[in-house]
Fold these 4 entries.
Entry 1:
Amino acid sequence: MNTTAIDAAPPAPSDYYSLTEAPPRNGTLLGFWIYLMSDCFIFASLFACYAVLGTEYAGGPTGADVLDLPGLALNTALLLVSSVVFGFAMLEMARQRKGAMLGWLAVAGLLAAAFVSLEVHEFLTMIADGAGPGRSAFLSSFFTLVATHGLHVTLGILWLIVLMVQTLKFGLNTDNVRRLRCLSMFWHFLDLVWVGVFSYVYLVGVLR
Amino acid sequence: MSQPTSSGHATPPGNHDGMLDDPMHEHQGSLRGYLTGFVLAAILTVIPFWLVMGHVIANKQVLILVILALAIVQIFVHIVYFLHLDTRSESGWNMMAFIFTAVLVIIVLGASIWVMYNENVNMMPMSPQYQQHPISHQPTGNQPPQ
């Protein structure tokens, strides 16, 4: 019984292997996903720094003194809505509606720009009040983590502008669709990181 | 015994090919999906803000744990509804990379906090000889007692 089954088997092992290696178009999205996972480590180490140093105030202001919760609520809402709006743009892209997609992308970009400018304003206010990154270990780790996230969002906006120009010039071709899907992952990923930032850095930060 | 395995050999390449043919229309999400994710994320954001700004829970430890638990739930909402991560995307490699990252991130965060907390506690000048002169490690503070 067993031997007959083995005799029947020989063609099967060849089915394990596909002749082509990773497909190039899928490969980009998987590679970009792995980049995002590596970005997770950057943020994880900065979160770990903040977790360790977040209560070392060096006699300076504490989280409750400098962190502005109403401003944070507005920032969080801006980034969340921006993320969902980017999703709407991706839905329009799937329907090949270029104009509607560019419209949603512009809205997402403007919301993210508002987020970045509010954050820069918050930073400048803090520095003017003597709570700059050099004041204490708490503020150093705070600025490093939040500014790294803000820098990511800023670069995301630049990338968005480049892709909008590309799409206007060359249309929704395969390359642009692939690039936009990478940017979409990047955009949602930054919103995901922000969940950690507002929960742990701000909301827990004002309690410690 | 060998019958199921040989049939198991045949299926994965079939799935593979289906995925290769249609890379552009894979896990796109839907309007309903994005709106569900948005509503869930908004609820999971409003609750911790309300808890902190409204001073709802007096016990800080409990409050911090609740905030962190809500954040973890919201991160999964984002992963499922916005990033469309599932076991089928990219033949499962997305999920594999994600699980690997999640495990390492938990180790990085957990171990850093654990090690540094213990170091902090054990390095505190708690022995009596240090407690007499709490600032004895400062060069200027060393002089007056002698």
Note: Residues 41 and 47 of chain A are 9 Å apart (CA to CA).
Entry 2:
Amino acid sequence: MTVQEKTPIDPKKRYSAGVLKYAQMGYWDGDYVPKDTDILALFRITPQEGVDPIEAAAAVAGESSTATWTVVWTDLLTACDSYRAKAYKVEPVPGQPGQYFCWVAYDIILFEEGSIVNLAASIIGNVFSFKPLKAARLEDMRFPPAYIKAFKGPPTGIVVERERLEKYGRPLLGATIKPKLGLSGKNYGRVVYEGLTGGLDFTKDDENINSQPFMHWRDRFLYCMEGVMKATADTGEVKGHYLNITAGTMEEMYRRADFAKQLGSVVIMVDLVIGWTAIQSIAEWCRANDMILHMHRAGHGTYTRQKNHGISFRVITKWLRLAGVDHLHTGTAVGKLEGDPMTVQGYYNVCRETKNEVDLPRGIFFEQDWCDIRKVMPVASGGIHAGQMHQLLHLFGDDVVMQFGGGTIGHPMGIQAGAVANRVAMETMVLARNEGRDIMAEGPEILRNAAKWCKPLEAALATWGAVTFDYASTDTSDFVPTASVS
Amino acid sequence: MKITQGAFSFLPELTDAQIAAQVEYALGQGWAVSIEVTDDPHPRNCYWEMWGMPMFGLKDAAGVMTELKAARATRPQSYIRLNAFDSTRGWETIRLSFIVNRPDVEPGFHLDRVEEQGRVQRYAIRRKSA
């Protein structure tokens, strides 16, 4: 395309009836300097054969803001240029022929305050089905302070959660109750009790534990809280079980949340699949009722995993920090589920930092000031075990919930022993790190030394010490600096 | 029964050298260390008695260890913990806390129950007498 073609054309020609290129309709402006108040989005697009990348980028900007496929004179009844999103930069994705990064700026007037669902409907509403693109992925977003301050964010946040639990200076430990389906309420509560009294801080319902024939929700809540309170008395520590209140309607979720509160639970849980409006509603309830809100990211892999199409989980993390969750599953890097270590660290930084700096290897494309909104506690869950403690602590630091489900409940000496093994491994590694030891080099030896006086840890290392999930990640950052398309 | 509050309760009791190393770590992070004492380690008792003010501006662990020695001499059968406080914006909270003294006998807690309608139980955690 020539420079003239890329620039909005003569207004007389612009509004003649017919079909124009999106770039010619004003959705591409290579000279545009984003305003501090703009919302910015970075897409990775794969145009169809023969589609110019700049025209494709303009189409993304157009379809996610005011455009339709043809010229409409009614634009002239509005201050239309300010409503048009503007693609302002396009670069080829290094090492991925046919893919382009494109940057789009949106004026803040396009968005309703305090509504993730409005943001989602705009940004991902229809561009992902747009025929001239083979594939599109929303990689990252930047929000201006005015937009951030329109949200209340996490109801509790890391600082207040720790103060409520009186637990500082170490990761929190959890486990998901297994088997995830089939246990009766009474047997389920037994696993909760054994895990917590053994040394876990939290146990957890799995994403699909709701109210099935084998265990109705009230039974589960009653038996779980019996286990929680008994373990609290046994240990002198505040304990919790993430009671999953996910249900078919908002009315039923509130009913379950109220019962959890009545029983004295410190935490409730929902699944990501309940949707953005339901998430913001339950966050409001949690704020009003001093409840920690645990978010299980059920379903995200359907749109976050393939890097050519969908939404990066870092964007979902940003939306959830605004919408208001206290815990968020953000990956383990070393466990059984997808996650390149640097990319996963990027998600952790989005959860916990006051301000994100640009960090391309970790997939952070924009500077983001979180304007003092509370921090989300990341959760590492899925195929991790005590033998990886040095790696987990090195990658994620103290402010994380490490969840060892199979790695607790599958312990050969029993559930309590499994909890002891994980807690000893964690405390011994924190102590060593604080003493200045190089835990990545000395970690295995530090664990072996602790196993000399801790039989459960010895048994855990003997059972799982060699287990690794060493597969290539499908979602890595792909970024190396290159020249722009011109 | 051993109360497992604090960051290192699952480890063998820390030696003074190990405690001093943790204090050095906290000071290196720019945190202020304080000492707190209680005879009531109920999990919801968040205000233990302050053993003096948090020690702001210390250069090394020696000052903390001197105070800890004095606290132990005065209250040998009490729970004593060290806290490290971070005044950084956005934290402004304790970043490390661990128990450094326990009574010889830890009596633990009773779980009291009051039965209500619908199988609901009202729980209360009560300290057992020593």
Note: The first helix of chain A runs from residue 3 to 6.
Entry 3:
Amino acid sequence: MQKISVLLFLIWVSFLFYMGIALFTSGFLLTRVELTNHSSCQELPGPGTLPWGSQGGPRACWMASRFSRLVLVLIDALRFDFARPQHTQVPGDPPVSLPFLGRLGTLQKLLETQPHHARLYQSKADPPTTTMQRLKALTTGSLPTFVDAGNNFASYAIVEDNLIKQLAKEGRRVVFMGDDTWKDLFPGAFSQASFFPSFNVRDLHTVDNGILEHLYPTMDSGEWDVLIAHFLGVDHCGHKHGPHHPEMAKKLSQMDQVIQEIVKRLENDTLLVVIGDHGMTMNGDHGGDSELEISAALFLYSPTALFPGTPPQEPEVIPQINLVPTLALLLGLPIPFGNIGEVIAELFSEVKDSQPRSSALAQASALHLNAQQVSRFLHTYSAAAQDLHVKELHQLQNIFSKASGDYQRLLQSPQGDAAALQTVIAELRQFLQGVRAMCIESWARFSLVRMAGGAALLATACFLCLLASQWATSQGSYFYTLLLPMAWGLAGAIVCAGLLAATGLTLDLVVLGALVAVGSLLPFLWKAWAGWRSRTPLAALLPRPGPVLSLLLIRFAAFFSDSFVVAEARATPFLLGSLILLLVAQLHWEGKLLPPKLLAMPRLGSAAPAGPPRHNSSHALGLGVGLLLCIRLAGLFHRCPEETPACSSSPWLSPLASMVGGRAKNLWYGACVGSLVVLLAAVRLWLHRYGNLKSPEPSVLFVRWGLPLMVLGTAAYWALASGADEAPPRLRALVAGASVMLPRAVAGLAASGLVLLLWRPVAVLVKAVAGTPRTRTVLTPFSGPPTSQADLDYVVPQIYRHMQEEFRGRLERSRSQCPMTVAAYQLGSVYSVAVVTALTILAFPLLLLHAERVSLVFLLLFLQSFLLLHLLAAGMSVTTPGPFTVPWQAVSAWALMASQTFYSTGHQPVFPAIHWHAAFVGFPEGHGSCTWLPALLVGANTFASHLLFAVGCPLLLLWPFLCESQGSRKRRQPAGTEADSRVKPQEEEEPLMEMRLRDAPHHFNAALLQLGLKYLFVLGIQILACALAASILRRHLMVWKVFAPKFIFEAVGFIVSSVGLLLGIALVMRVDGAVSSWFKRLVLSQQR
Amino acid sequence: MKDTDIKRLLYTHLLCIFSIILSIFIPSLFLENFSVLETHLTWLCICSVFVTAINLILYLVVKPNTPSKRSSLSYKVTRFLKCCIYFLLSCFFFHIIFVLYGAPLIELVLETFSFAVILSTFTTVPCLCLLGPNIKAWLRVFSRNGVTSIWENSLQITTISSFLGTWFGAFPIPLDWERPWQVWPISCTLGATLGYVAGLIISPLWIYWNRKQLTYKNN
Ligand SMILES: [Zn+2]
Ligand SMILES: [Zn+2]
């Protein structure tokens, strides 16, 4: 019962965290489904005939092209007021002189001298106002979110239909120069391109000067149809100095010069577009949705007259993506499939024609094409995804069908009046604007309330973990303290939810979950508050800040700096190393490191630590240095984040198949298989050391026979995978079949091993016990079989002691013939044996998903955790009969090691760094339409370290008990010393080891609960830090490149870790239950 | 008695700080283009020499620990040689620790080693001066309740604060500020120096404030 409640409590805490994550994510990460459909020239978006009939030229598509050439000057972060013309000083207004005002004089001059040729707009960008998302929007006409579901995470290349793709399809020559983000977005789409690095925001001139070097010669050469120049200087100047700096004036003047030069070179068939992709805040940052960030300048100019009227006094405000359909139709291209922008109708009126009707008709036909395309997109999208409002969608479709009908009718009647045309235009525009509004509603708005709520829920859950981990061991009746509020809250929340559902209010599932979480938290917090007000002060319950907690705080703070997130692969080993040295230093400080002999001085002041040190721990220094060495070696397997160009990734992370040298390949292969064998041998040796290898239980048999089979399978698979190309043609089919079957066989073996382990988790030698004649009966005051738990609690240690004595007696009688004597240790390590076996069985299939050489890292991982556990055990003292605690340093070191292993297995928290090839291990042909299996495989590859360390977490509690045997054995070696003579007889008996935990089941459960809570806390503050960083820094340059991916990885890692933790603890409890029933059977058989 | 001791401690520490300040300004009189950041290695060497010299002088002048009974020349020479060996060993030890902590193995060996030298100067040299080449005594001083005089207490504080300074000095390295002092190992050496100076200042004050609680048993 208690075990169940421990698990329930942990599940509830995990649930709180999940809800916090879900709530935050729903407010922060807006998603959208990407469609891969493409518009084509031959196929109109809806029924109807080409309005131009067959008179369109060779470059006519849905519409005849108006311009054959386009110059697109993209000035990054060109805010609208940077380009706003400075009108003559209004008397009375104070004169304003800001560095960025009125610098683009060319635009002003063109607007004044050629009002029919030029137009300035204030374009409104949609958040997120980051360059990559804006570029996506400016070419697809859509509203990119951070996670455009369905895109391949491996690259940033745009899969949706876009202008550049359409241009390339039509055979236009697109020349690009500038920001190298375009290279990632449109690989291979340009006929000629000069990319310049965009990463260094402190560098104002490299990109711009590089463009200027190429721009004019290219323009003069005439070998282009579309010329795109993306200048970064203004944006970088904003990031470095802010807009109010004299440097900004210089930069804008330079841009003015550029525009002037371009205008000089324009020909009559060319359109010039000057556009800013977004604006910038007062500080020069962008990414969010404030007015200054989203308002960007858009300027159109052509040497031929474009507009029928003169520009308005105040420039018109239009959505930025309206440029996309406009440019597409002007250039004679189909509008990109996913566009939801609206054509700028002004541009489609007939300039020379005085007849208002034909002008309006031209506008209406452009708008109608546009509306048809948008309607087609909506239709396709709503079939693929359900995130659009059904009711609204229906209304919009009605508007469209009405407008479309009106339009068709007008076309039929040649004498339709202009007023009717105007209504059709208004209807079409209403439809287009309605679609945009609906899409923005569901795709492009941060919900600050949800973000704050999610972060608050996460913070409260962390606080709860902290508090409850103290309560778990300090209070006697903690189960009621912990469980009752939770049960009440849960019940109340469910009733609330039921009421809400009954009243017919539609409630978001995420919000509902969060409500349940908050509802179940409230009584708990109330209890904490009441406890604080009354007898037990809260401050006494909270852990005192020690060096370890300050280390955790440093780690917490590091998540707020993009540099540290990028450099985490180096920072984590540093912190881990510091923690290890701290542990060693602490041991020394406490006088536990060296035997007291070495410290010749008698201890002064307060008494020396009570009792002699339990462990002969002079090897702790060696352990520390060994750990540092392991960490450093694991650091050699380092994959570089893409943000640091100077860094080079380790070549050892690539699969062996990519190696050329035959000899080196063979050597590496040998090393990899060797590391597998060493891993297997080490685990077997360890089991042998504690005597569990002799047990006839199926799980041990699996370790003896199944694991070598798995090693064989893995080695064979690697041999095939690395040398598949060299196989003779006759064997190709065989090799292909084997490379499908082998990984599946290994995974199947592992699964059966785990099932065996769960079925019979107690790896002890029962037969040896039952077969020997009893020399003494168990001293039990109960005559019948044990009925209650209390009976069993009393009887079990008795039996254990008795058995040990019996074994020792046999040992003395027949030391030579009896190889089974080691069996006495079996029961003492029964828990950790199960956990270690589970870890080993889990490790092999996970290893198979990685590149071959990562097996060395896995070996290091096991070695490292072994050393760390020993080091931690050296610092912990076993307090019988409880309460048992796991110190904070142990848990934080464990969590740090998990994230260090994440990096040293070649991962990085960015999407392009995910090991996608893992999806094809065992499935070389792909998965067909199945998506969960590849996701599972890739996830298992990415979060392998999280899973292994979380499952292995109970070892932190068990290991000190395990180390007891060494301590007592070594202590007996130096005979005759003073310490030995004082040893009491009962201490002479075999160490109880993990049976001490069984002696005090209450404390055992409490310790498991505390361990779980502490681990969840350490992981929880990481995810809290990520969430806070992502929300506070949502305007930061790096938010979509660094913070948001980090948050996603941390969140998934947390979920994997918490599940692993629950599984690990459940495994220990299963073993505990099995040991109980084993003892019961033993007692029963004895009474017969 | 005790207050005079603390005063002596304070003066010696001020002298040490003064020597570090001198090492920043004196070389620029003799060397052209000398600056702490640009010619960092030179400064490290000079600083190390200055601090070692002042420590030795202070040791000879102040004589904080009881003079040993044996005073033959050969004993002194072997003791001195032993000290030198210990110093070198500690340099290598620190170098290895830095590499284990992530310092580059092959590149910048000279820089890493001079960093090890300066850290040894701040930590090992005072230990050698005060305790002699006696590992047991060192281990005793750096354990709980192991100190026996205010000299040892201040040694404990300055050493720990030097290490802490070094540790914190590593933090700015990954930041993207692109300052010249973020290059390995400059920020760490600066951190070590600042930590040492802070330890020199803090330890007399700390001992002064806690003089009631501190009771040393003089051997
Ligand atoms: Zn931008
Ligand atoms: Zn920017």
Note: Confidence is low (pLDDT under 50) at residues 598-617, 767-787, 811-825, 967-989 of chain A.
Entry 4:
Amino acid sequence: MERSFAKEVQSLKLGDGEVFHGEGILAITKALLQSGVSYVGGYQGAPVSHLIDVMADAQDILDELGVHFEACANEASAAALCGASINYPMRGAAVWKSTVGTNVASDALSNLASAGVKGGVLIVLGEDYGEGASIIQERSHAFALKSQMWLLDPRPHLPTVVDLVEHAFELSEASSTPVMMEFRIRACHMHGRFKTKANKAPAVSRNKLINDPDFDYGRICLPPSTYVQEQHKISHRFPAALDYIRRHRLNEYFDGPLDDVGIIMQGGMYNSVLRAAQQLGLADTQGNSKLPLAVLNVTYPLVPEEISAFCAGKRAVLVVEEGQPAYIEQNIESILRRADVQTKVHGKDVLPMAGEYVGEVLLNGLSKFVERVSPAGVDVAGVARVPRDIAAVKKDAADALGAPVPTRPPTFCTGCPERPVFSAIKLAQKDTGKLHVAADIGCHTFSTLAPFNIGNSVLGYGLGLSSAAAVGPAMDRRVVSIMGDGGFWHNGLTSGVSGALFNETDGVLVIMNNGYTSATGQQFIPSTGKNFKQHETGMSIRKALEGMGVKWVRTVTTYRVSKMVKALRDALTTKQGGLKVIIADSECQLARQRRIKPQIREQLKRGERVVRTKFGVDEDLCTGDHSCIRLSGCPSLTVKPSPDPLRADPIAHVNEGCVGCGLCGEVADAAVLCPSFYRAEVVQNPGRIDRFLDGLRRRVIGAPAP
Amino acid sequence: MSGERPGIDRPLTLVFAALGGEGGGLLSDWIIDACTASGLPVQATSIPGVAQRTGSTTYYMEFMRASNDDEPLFGLYPAPGYVDMAVATDLVEAARLIEKGYVTPDRTTLIAATHRVYAMSEKTAMADGTFHAPRIHDAARQFARHVVLRDFAEAGRVEGTMVNALLLGAMTADERFPVDTDALAEAIRGRGVAVEANLRGLAAGRRLAADDASAAIVDTGVPTPPTREAPFPEGVQAMVDAALPRLVDYQDDAYARHYRERVEAIDRAAGRTAAGVEVTRETARYLALWMTYEDVMRVADLKSRASRRDRIRRETGAKDGEPVRVTEFFKPGIDEFSTIAPRFVTRWLTAWAERHGGVDRFHLPVHLRSDTIVGHAALRFVAFMGRRRRRTARFAAEQRAIERWLDAVNRTAPSNPALALAIARCAQLVKGYGDTRIRAMRNFDAIYSTLIEPAAESGDGQVAEHIEKARAAALADDEGKALQAYLAGATTVSDNAAIQRGAANKQDNPTRIGGNA
């Protein structure tokens, strides 16, 4: 991390009865320490990167408590980390982005869940679902079902969340089962407060060492233990979990006057359901609902007695369950049938099967439910009017605006070192013809968007090269695979490179070496050069490749577009078979700017000579064709109305955001584009020679007009 | 629901739309800190996700204006029809809020910066793809309870601060906003980020919002022509006034006169009907641009002027006494040398190039320091060569193409102004440098030979529409795919014999005009 989280770290030190103010994910981090964890590990990814960033910066607290923090190579190793809790009474937590992270972790998770745990294990899942999500849309729920792990989905209210984190460890130990807790994006970034407790030093830790390793074949995942373990899940762990959930009232039930109907919801849905109820006049502003509510902070397992008790005597209930399949709705149906409770269950019939349950979706669903069941004493017509009015407003708005507002998907940052690589690929294709590009996960996935639209498939993090293995042999020209340095160390080195070498794959791999896992917030990786403790690592991508036996490796500075085009051409046309690797090398511009800006400010203060570079477009030369933008897409390369009354089309323009990376000039040059671009270097605190030359030039060329 | 007092009977809701990197996170931190310090209940959330990378992103907040013990229920999502304050850093982001139903007449104050950060689709269009701003201004007035549209970006430049601080100031101008400027100033100091600048922004934003005089005036374009005795109709005169100095500057008085005569000819042919005037105006526009086509000499000339040096100093914000070094990126090819070299050299060079794989394969990358004495001298020399522009092969070719185009407009203007206008507008395609210009010319030729020429002869009325569509198609993509597809379809409806002629004509007279300076 180039950034510092000192401020956040301070809030982890709060003691008994103090008040914490901050984001949900930071509250969870504090709750872990309050629960006496011995270890914490994970892999970064929105929306839970923050937990890892803060932990990495909190060494002093962790040392004092004896908590071990592991910056894991990927989610599989994060899950495996929890193996410590199989044999020893060590509480531990692992965190990652889900479902993608859970997919990577599931091998270790299955074995962990089968063996069972002595110390409590909590898996914190950043449920990256819906608006702002960066991954395929699936649910983590299925993992809980298949491996018999318990799944918590807390009501987004920090005191409740923190309380449930502590309960999660108790529950895990009471049922010797790992517990998963899912937090949606908005809950992770939700800013709130809660009363803190002092951090608890773990019973077993690097400060209190184990002197007697435990061996228990019953904990090994081999027959016959595995058979026993599966039986044990059903005969002991499941009932123990139900018992704990019931006794400690982990689920919340609220009464309401309209008790012939009710709503059963995932805890995470609570605020949004209540807001919809308010808009429909079915709840007051304090969140007192007229309909009785069952808030499931534990979505697996459900407690049959609780469900049937809530539904008993009700004509109908609405199940609010985000995403698909409708596991909870099905579960409730079967519980009610077994208990012979004849309550009608609504859910996916009035709410959409797929997609995020945003305010408007719930508003429409809830009003549909009311229309279907018309509860005694509700003005159904009045309720139905609300969504109709909103739909009308939106229609009028669309008409007034005349055209759909242009979408604004994410793109490469200003001066991003990855952008030039795709400019180069776009240019290289002019000779090589269209290429099949096996894309990967990372900032570079934005290459699939305008203006590049490069990348034919995305199969997963670090899997760019692997995903070309079958396409390559079937293609009349070489396939180009992309991989970020993050993906390379996450698994690309083993899954992709070793596989390609072993199978003698003839193809081209471009590795984006920008120094960090940039998309998740510039966390350090092995090839950054140092780890989060700021210790040297001495690991490099090139060394790794050569060690594995890659013969053809070129390192090219990404901003040199012409050189990159040449390297690509060579790799695509050389007689030499096998894997050709181009290391596209330049530091993440976000991280770079964050590092050098203060340095430059200092230099200027000290009166040292600093050259500031900015690119520009001559407004009287630009003809408004915008080819440059189509080859660059830099946010600071934009358009503005032409100052020339004769020109109808807007002209290209470089705004003040420019960091002088030089891509404009490189592209104009490599593409034989247009002479409108210029590079201007302002010499701040000029030296004697600078001033002399400048004076001379001004005199000869003619001083600027006043 | 209305009738309830927001922030007292129910939470006051605020949605803030920004682009990644515009300081939306810091803005919400300021508000949260201020509320917390004032003991007011507040909840905020956001969806950065990948949107942080310059994509559009939103921050959502709910507060109470009075502190009470039993905290109300706060929502996590903005809900249509339930937003009290909608704030945006960009006009189109404001439009997005309106589109989503977050701006409603019963409750919403809409505060937005009127400047534009253009979306990719608006920027990559080959002509003008920008969203029509006036519509957004109208929609804002139609849907908001109270509208505050100001040029906060410009104010930001003046105050040397970011837009987020100014918008924060503007929010405090709404009497329902829970915290005052003092509390926010404290919060800004507390966060310690560019404190002085942000405090200036806070104050300026509040002033700006309170001052209705600074409300954005919607500029619907249309330059007003100078009020002097004009031989041409108004719109045309404006064009000619803009064009003549440009032509003198480009070549000489004679060249400007030639332009004027060409326009007069069109004026006579098109007549003074509304339709006719429009034909003349558009022809005058594109004729001026085409006649002042950009070649090496023109580029060198424009790049070596004092006015340009001043502009660069302005744009880079260089202080007095700070030298500015300027590097130009040229990649001259055969075409460029031809424009300077004598004809026989050109012929020999071209022939040689053709033998060795085509004229456009040979380029000489030159990175020229135009601020140095030598660099400047070089530019002036090339600019000086402009005097013999009339003798260059490029000039002859361009004039041929211009005459061909003008002739088509002339012939059709009297009988069919709509067709003439369509033909005149086609010259919009003729722009760019190097490959771009060559491609543009190819498209223009294709439309000319397939549609314009046959129509000009047959006077076929409905072709006007085809030509307009073809022009749009030519601007749809780089490789001219859309155009090919369209022309293939369009030909079926027009007279085949004419197309034969057109095609034949295209073969024996290929206009290959290019030139990257």
Note: Chain B touches chain A through 129 residues (CB under 8 Å).
